[in-house]
């Protein structure tokens, strides 16, 4: 198909809408679920967040690339997003921390993107129709009917468990030598005496979560998503952290089983985003897909016990269904945008979770105190802490 001389790329949506624009990144074709992110800053953290695996991100903020890219702002070494869609790519990277341009970075990471399209119009389409699949074609041979056919096939294909793809394949430990820890908000009220042993379930964990835990003097062991509770308990953890991650949490039966075991022995648990959804599933709640999800840095969330409102960073397409919520679950936070569940606590257990991103990166730090709550809970439970002369003992699971 012949497009205008300025266009060398197209975005084709499942519903037949087509946008012509300019290729950014490498040439080729890429498919994925189109989501829009409303953050005004933090494009590098967003594209490297493993939770965006298999998705194509539209940035509603019109100028992307202004501050370039740098090593420290990556949420992983891989760009997990399947593609990016922007209005204007900045040709100048103007920031003292910049180590290169976004364009060069996209090419290096072999990412396909499109610029110079009406992202406001695209966002309105997604808001009305709900999430849909799309394809960026970044070469001259744009074959619309063939692409539409492939999009139809994809929308009917079996959903894959993305967590197993992005999770670490091997267990590893971390300390503060592993990170150049700067720009990490410090939580003030934590006593930094003894190391707290945390097992982090990596469902697609963001680096900033690990940095914050390490900054709180935690000794961290990151384990693959499929690690059984028995294996994890051999590490004598004082607490379990359930990370964020991509896709639908419902196929992650292995993690749901492990969480059920952790709940039985009542070890402290904190879950973020996908981790929150898995904790809910382990307690018998239902998960549903949202119309177009929450992706942005300005989502108001109310803590129900205090009526305090915090502005939070969010990135999710699924949510805990409030209908027929099991009695064991207490809702602790709700979204002031759509009243969806944003936080929960398991009654009579040392387990709680948050749907948004208290680690931010990018986004506001209002919910950071949830990490403080976790560390305080872990310290007060003394799980796997030996008294003088005793050895740590695990409760058999
Ligand atoms: N950031 C996340 O952990 C996302 C969780 C889940 N994949 C969702 O889209 O709802």
Automatic annotation (TrEMBL):
Annotated EC: 6.3.5.5
Question: Which NCBIfam families does the UniProt entry name for this protein?
Answer: CPSaseIIsmall, PRK12838.1
Residues that bind L-glutamine, according to the entry? Answer: 51, 245, 247, 274, 277, 315, 318
Q: Which residues form a coiled coil?
A: none
- The broad enzyme category this protein falls into is ligase
Q: Is Repeat included in the keywords of this UniProt record?
A: no
Primary role:
Small subunit of the glutamine-dependent carbamoyl phosphate synthetase (CPSase). CPSase catalyzes the formation of carbamoyl phosphate from the ammonia moiety of glutamine, carbonate, and phosphate donated by ATP, constituting the first step of 2 biosynthetic pathways, one leading to arginine and/or urea and the other to pyrimidine nucleotides. The small subunit (glutamine amidotransferase) binds and cleaves glutamine to supply the large subunit with the substrate ammonia.
Output the HAMAP family linked to this UniProt entry. CPSase_S_chain
Highest taxon of source: Bacteria
Q: Can you say what this protein is called? A: Carbamoyl phosphate synthase small chain
As for family, the record states: Belongs to the CarA family.
Species in which this protein is naturally found:
Buchnera aphidicola subsp. Schlechtendalia chinensis
